[in-house]
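Internal tracking record. Fields below are filled automatically when a chain is submitted to the structure queue. Please do not edit lines marked as system-generated. If the sequence contains nonstandard residues, flag them in the REMARKS field before resubmitting.
Queue: standard
Priority: normal
Entity type: single polypeptide chain
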Amino acid sequence: MFRLSRICTASQQPIRIAIVAAFAFVLTLMATVPLRAQTVATYSFEDGTADGWSSFNGATTPIATTAAAYSGSHSLLTTTSSSGAGGPSISLNSVLLPGAKYTITGYVELTSGESAGNVDFTMKRSDPSCSGGTCYDTIGSYQVPVSDSGWVQIGGTYTASTTETGLTLYAQLVGATSAQSLFLDDVVITETAPPPGGTPIAAYTFADGGLDGWTPFGSATLTNTAPPLPDPNGDTHSLLVTNRTAGYMGPSLNLLGVNNVVAGATYQISAYVLLAATDSSNPTATISTKTADCASSGAYGTVATSAALSTTTWTKVQGTFSYSNLPGPPSSLTLYIQSSSATDSFYISDVTIGELSPAPLSPSQQDNSGITTTFADGDLDGWSSRTGSSTLTNTAPPVLDPNGDPLSLLTTGRIANYDGPQISVNDKMYNGSEYNISASVLMQPTDGSSHVINLSLQTTLNGNTTYSSVTGYPGVTVPADGKWHQISVTGYNMSNSFDPGAAYLYFQTVPASGSDLASFYIDDFQLTYVPPPTIQKNIPSIYKTFADFFPIGAEVDTTDLSGPHAQLLMKHFDSMTPGNDLKWSSVEATKGTFTYENGDAEVGEAVCAEMKVRGQNLVWATGEQVPAYATGDGTNSPANQAVVTANIQEHIQNEVQHFGSKVYAWDVVNEPIDPTQPDCLQHGPFYQVLGPSYIDIAFKAAKEYAPAGTKLFINEYSTTDPAKLACLVKVLHELRDRGVPVNAIGHEMHNQINYPTTESMVHAIDTVHAELPDLEQQITELDLSVYNGGDDSSNYGNNVPASILAEQGWLYKKYFDAFRHLKGKISAVTFWGMADDDTWLDSFPVVRTDYPLPFNMQLHAKPAYWGIVDPTRLPGYGLKFTSTTRRIGPDQIALTLTAANGDVGPAYATLLNAFELRQTEGRRCSPVIHAPGTYPIALGDIPTSGSSGAEFTIDFSGCSESSRFVLEVPWSSATYHTGTYVRELRGRKDCE
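SYSTEM-GENERATED OUTPUT FOLLOWS
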């Protein structure tokens, strides 16, 4: 079992047992309410009782009354002593935690006929640090004017002393000299920051003689015994750890069995350790964790390591800890204490766990009402000066704001660039949520100058303050031209945790240098919560649709591991490729220091979901995302060749062994082909040192260290280019001839909407298969830009035409029709992303909004998806052609060709590309065709269930009555929706 320890002062003397009750109270409270800025006590007196309040210093006993109320129908009535002293009071011994921060507020009004005076809240504090053992702390203002004509608020912030032994809150009339009566109502106490070390979760002192739930880690023995000297808190019991035979062995605790330890929260864990016998090696102690989940039977983490341990002094070891439910909730979570010595015995005592920051709230627990301030009421609407030096005034601007409001907020007297208006967003912005933020700004004076206005976020967590730019840094340029200018940020992802009450949005100026203290107005400020997207659950799964053909993969990053993106991933894909987190610079930025946190999370998610994983990549031929040390000094000297060879081998060994069989395929060498070079190879940094042999070294290392059967790929782009394809085949033959264990080829396929052709994609696959039929092939990085190849200037922004999306959808249909026919030649298709809200093409080849993936910004299916899964849902599906003829002369007919659209959606840009007659019977002749225009003949955008047509004239003069013809009209819609209308014509007989 475990129990809560008693709390001790800085002088290490025990404090009264009442604080233990406070711990119990808080733990009970935490089990029922979210762990954020939380109200720990309210006193409204609405039940008709005094809610535990009593007389202080000679005042009358407080009673609940309906004679007045700030809210509701009741308040508390008290009369001071005859000398004016005293008032209503409440003991907070079991409410406030030592070291925690609070706001304490209430409302006071004098009874009718009482003379106006002053009032405040005061805390009587019993504390050995006070002179005489007692202090009186004013909460908020010492004198708040009060009368019988209205309620006034009293109170403010209060930090409970870490050494207090008793707390009594009371309201008093300051300066009163005779008995006066007052009403008190709506007293609210809110914890705004936990105590140092966090809000107490659990503490273990072993004072009851038991093990308090601790068990051996390894074969160590645990004994509750008296240490040779009391611990720093004066405890005479501790946990002795003996019979250790390895450094990891020690005492352990099942954290999943500790109440209120939850995923996503951050905790501080501390313990005191004492060596049982002198050890000249100066061993240390480490708090560690072992986590098992669906992806791992044992992942180890370090919380903190102590200084050298001693036999004469207890050594504190303290650190922070958090855990995630990704890739799946832990099946076990063990905290244990180990030593750098394998055999030393040691004592532990006073292990404490405190919550530093709570887990992010789910959207259903958040206040997502946002903030709107128009200043129309003449107030500041919650805005204040950042420094307290600038002046904020609700006043009429020189011109009405864009919404015609007559009042705005003016900030003047600024003393620094950062000194601007701020507004609290505590309980309005939440870590992990997304927001749209906007405001209008008017600079003063109107002098034609130019200013950069920046909207930023200030958050404080555990005493550390962070300043995050909300607008793109440095900000938005606003001219002082007498006009309002809008600052707007869409989709801002709030990623900062903060102490309760410690988050502010603020406006500042950011000059190129020096100071810009210009005054400015703001108006029409809006903070709007953006609900997370929801996926469509009633549409077909992409990977299940292709289950009989090949796996369907997606490139991912850590943002895809939770929420709707994870739902989209699991529904539609059965393979994943970490986009950046397995690359050399991400895994081993510093030689010999490996960082697998993100990669483990992504691969772990795949393992838990039974998805395949492609590793991308081990060596990038161009040197992209490769740390500088990897190629040594860059020369091809024998010494540097040995260094670089060892670097490649060491990196590949560590990474492929780390992931083992969890990764079934690796892009061992990425993009090594360059058709402009005589040897067809990129002459990148690895080539400069090792020549072509760097490829051999990489593949041989991967073959040696990866599990047997791992697919080892060369991954390459633009394989549809004839020169690139020829070089690829040439290099593959050369590698095979040298015995390099390449067994697979990846075709990236980063395509544009006009290039390459589907036929060239098929040709690339067929060519490699014909030349090297035993090589596995995959489409590894498929996306389809909505822009033409070579077009670096167009930008659809947020308004991509529906016709372009339809065109993309029909092209995706062509792709996947081709891929189906390539079954047996390709073994997987992987998209480079999932949805348009996260694509690398937004920044390549230029910064602009692209839409290359199956799902849109809201994670919903778009035509691209339907082209892949069910083309009957594509716009223009069901487009059909018919024709009618009429005689217009002895040998002439008019043929009207009509395109009738289906009921799915518009048939965009419908074209007749030719009008051809092929004679099938009779003496050869040459009918003359008169078209209504030049080819292609545009029928335009045909609306849903609408139609459009064109009339052609055919002159059969010179043709015999036995002549017969076949009319063929190739057509297209949305560029890639194609077909041919065919009809038999009887020639001159059609003229009868």
